[in-house]
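Quick look at the format.
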Amino acid sequence: QVQLVESGGGLVQPGGSLRLSCAPSGSIFNINVMAWHRQAQGKQRELVAAIFSGSSTNYADSVKGRFTISRDNAKNTVYLQMNSLKPEDTAVYYCNAVSLRKEAYWGQGTQVTVSS
């Protein structure tokens, strides 16, 4: 019954910035990891960034130094600040949360298009 809802996607010029947000539509308990994945047309879905309950983070090499993931543990909300965007960042971005019981939750995705 619980769903994750992403927001903040859109069209932006190369070098621009966007901030994505993801919040649950219902109560989720004991969340361990929250993450952002993306899938470009014709390509496999890939992990972009992940953040753990202790605020440690992991990033894909392609976005290091440009993207920042953060979370509000009280709200189980995760954010992705994307700076210096490139055309190759164009994709559908998906929010993901995994509980300590290994239950996974996904959003429906938000489109990010980087084009001049």
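Next, a different chain entirely:
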Amino acid sequence: QVHLVESGGGLVQPGGSLRLSCAASGNIFSINAMGWYRQAPGKERELVATITSGGSTNYADSVKGRFTISRDNAKNTVYPLMNYLKPEDTAVYYCNADLNLIVVGIGVRTRNYWGQGTQVTVSS
């Protein structure tokens, strides 16, 4: 059984900061890319930031210079630090991970997983 557990969402004033975290657990052999996406009401889910196992990062233009994504490979955890938050950052934030799983009798298989989502609200 594989789980992606997210935490750190909440209400913050414009200009404030939040640090989310997403921890992967289960029969994981290794993790490829991890990242965060978000979905605002009435809008499609969109990329926020991703980070590869080697530490290469990719950011949406809307968050460049404000958000920083990092990961702790030993803990299978990814952390987006979100600074200078704006009301338009309000959304449900979802963790995503490409996991290499140990499948008994078969070997290692790659599967993509989503977290349950955590609400981030930026409002005064």
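Residues 27 and 104 are 10 Å apart (CA to CA).

See the schema section for token definitions.
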